[in-house]
UniProtKB/TrEMBL annotation:
Similarity section: Belongs to the prokaryotic molybdopterin-containing oxidoreductase family. NasA/NapA/NarB subfamily.
Protein name per its UniProtKB record: Nitrate reductase
Protein keywords: 4Fe-4S, Iron, Iron-sulfur, Metal-binding, Molybdenum, Nitrate assimilation, Oxidoreductase
GO CC terms, sorted: membrane; oxidoreductase complex
4Fe-4S Mo/W bis-MGD-type domain segment(s): 29-85
Cofactor(s) annotated in UniProt: [4Fe-4S] cluster; Mo-bis(molybdopterin guanine dinucleotide)
Amino acid sequence: MNASISAELRPAALSRVDDVVQATAAGARTETKATCCYCGVGCGVIVESDGEKVTGVRGDPDHPANFGRLCTKGSTLHLTANPVLQQQVRALHPELRLARNQQRERASWESTMDFLARRVEATIREHGPDSIGFYISGQLLTEDYYVFNKLAKGLVRTNNIDTNSRLCMSSAVAGYKQTLGADAPPACYEDIDEAQVIFIVGSNTAYAHPILYRRIEEARKKNPALKVIVADPRRTDTAREADLFLPILPGTDVALFNGMLHICLWEDLIDTAYIDAHTEGFVELKRTVRDYTPKFVADTCGITEEDLIRAARWFGQSKATLSLYCQGLNQSAAGTAKNAALINLHLATHQIGKPGAGPFSLTGQPNAMGGREVGGLANLLSAHRDMANPEHRAEVARLWGVDDVPSTPGKTAVEMFEAVRSGEIKIIWIACTNPAQSLPEQKMVREALKHAELVIVQEAYRTTATVDYADVLLPATTWSEKEGTVTNSERRITRFKPVLPKPGETRHDWEIVIDFARRLEQRMGKAGTLFPYENVEQIWNEHRESTRGRDLDITGLSYRILEQQGPQQWPYPEGAVTGKKRLYEDGIFPTASGRARFVDTVYKPVVEPVDARFPFRLTTGRLRDQWHGMSRSGTVAQLFSHASEPAVMLAQSDMDRRMIANGDLVHVTSRRGSQILPALASDEIRAGQAFIGMHWGEEYVSGRGSDGAGTYGVNALTVPAFCPSSKQPELKHAATKILKAELPWRFLVFGWIDASAALALQAALRPTMRQFAYASCTLFGRDKVGVLFRAADDYPAAPELVKDIEARFGIAGAEVLRYDDTKRGNARHILVRDGKLEAVSLAGDLSAERWLKEYLEAEQPVAALGRLLLMPSTKAPQGFKPRGRIVCNCFNVAETEIHDMLDTQDWINEGTPDAALASLQGKLKCGTNCGSCVPELKKIILQKSPAGKIAA
């Protein structure tokens, strides 16, 4: 990146700091450099600490991934490390259950690890090593990943080790390997600044990778000629900002890319010289794509021929086209084909190996790349080696000092849990992930966890759904406590150190693995140990040696270099003075021939097409302010402000046709399960489609289910079919039916809860949710923490159940204001303290919900309301105006405040949406901190614009 761009991306108020900076103020406050633990952008953060707790975070101005910027999630990381909150949700000591009908009990590390070594050794001896399975996480550090991989493949001698990255990035891995020869993203973040066309497909970048999206916004300001194309079934905030939006039907990506290549061939936009000199296999692909005519592709994808042709021309004519893609391509039964078809397009037009160009897979998790580097998938070995290659297995065996590495293919994520259910795998060890929320077909997953002879869960949070099934709970450290390295989407390795000491009896993940491994070695009669490490650097050095001569060679790096010179990209071989920004600039690829390979990709319809019984195409995706299963982000009340409760988004026309109003409950049903959810109209969704945030598991939404077995959130609905090449499951598309839920009785309780008890209450209410046909439980608030419990049923709940729930919110005793109409099943119970609402319970009639909740949140005095508090009326107090949804989380700016300012300002005559945005930012500050809300602010501005008065 040139100096001027770097300077402009750095916040002016921040200056360079060393890894650890002692504050000049009184006290032991420190500032420590670390990385954000959410998405794969890999943002650097500066963590403020007083030695006992994290007191604040801000972006690291020197980190090349973000130059000081953070999104809403990253900027609230310090709140997730609050000891008062963490005490309620953290796993702080080992727990052990000796029999299935018993509760887990606290145990010592000594007795727990001895128990595990004894059970695992006995199971291997009786049933063989493949009776053990390990399911780990892209949120582990590289060093953690490495020892887990060595434990499974080197000591236990099974390849049954897979990771939740299988759900995230395995199609990208397979696509890169099939075409370019190695799992190596060829582009870098600087290419965003150099690109002339950016093609975003299968990614709502504005939500999923907000800091990269800020960079795209900056690039567009600097280069007005830059074109952005977005292909997505939904008109997301990312799509709304595009110069060209292609609203393709779910699953039709291969047809789109083949159609674009067809047009590039027809209009001579391919680079024949490059194809001849650096690739192979083009003749076969050319025969295939000739059938992808503009009409066929437009009809298949649900777009216009004109837009298809425009996209192909922009892509092929550009001097530098950069593609950014994520789960929309990867999470598919055709995921590898989608990736390969896009890479084909780049190879044919020579949009690779030069500044501003390349197929750039955006990693989902913070260290999915690091896991791939150490071979943390069932089909891989260290340093991008293939399990099926005998030479690769021999190389790793020599490095580890073992006779050989097993050749039997390991079970991948979905296969592994199917094997647990069938009894083939007896013991499953789960680390730093929550398969009882994130895997598809939750009914199967939970049957597997119930059937396993032993479930071991190594986890920082004891409140995840998976922990409920654990026979052994191993408490692990988490962000701000760990040390090691991570690798982000652009192959950049960051080293960081712990900020806080390990809480309670927690241990680092690598420490847990090594302790267990040494005990298992003793029980197996092994002389010496494969795990001689005393610290993370020794582990990393062995990993480094495994990369020698490989495509990701990092033998020139060290912890010292990473600490002194900052994050570095691979490859960085011995003798190098810097890493490599972009790959394949010389046109030489890591294949047997040195040439890139075209893959003959053929479009196949989705594995579960819609039909008369299941007419809706359901897609899932990320919310702006939440992360994965929300075990961390879900502890921060203010992160619920933008999307406060679970919902299914539908087109207004579909809701009108079924007489569904906003907020009405509906059954969303697939062939695998059903979940009741509120329906909300969305202008992002085309008719016949539905969308649910991927984060909503049973921790936040459930119910007893029609069969009494319970419902499990969004992944009760998703499809377990997976890509034959990558084994990545089809989480993005399912055929569903949506029917209005006739549940006449409604119940709602919300109130302020002491910060030391709020998360514990939310977790404690989870079993209660199963007693209703539908129930959800979320947080709200900013300076204070509130809990909101919502339920619905065919008939009023038992009075004892209602009283129990109310009592948990403090709604009990003489100070509670009460209105009860037992004949109609209506009730309103209100706890008032110091003249303000403290907690509210509504049963039957919920019409007063909005204004009562906003009075509570605003802490407005209610003495003047008098009897209105209890009157069974839909009317709000005179002068009440709801704030509406929070758009800017950083400054707590709501929709109504934005609309009011736009209504009172003469912004239309100022000329452009940018002028209106600047006015909003100047008056309300919204969009001036992390910038995550800027696309939504622009959307509101354009919706307020009279036709013809302002340019879009």
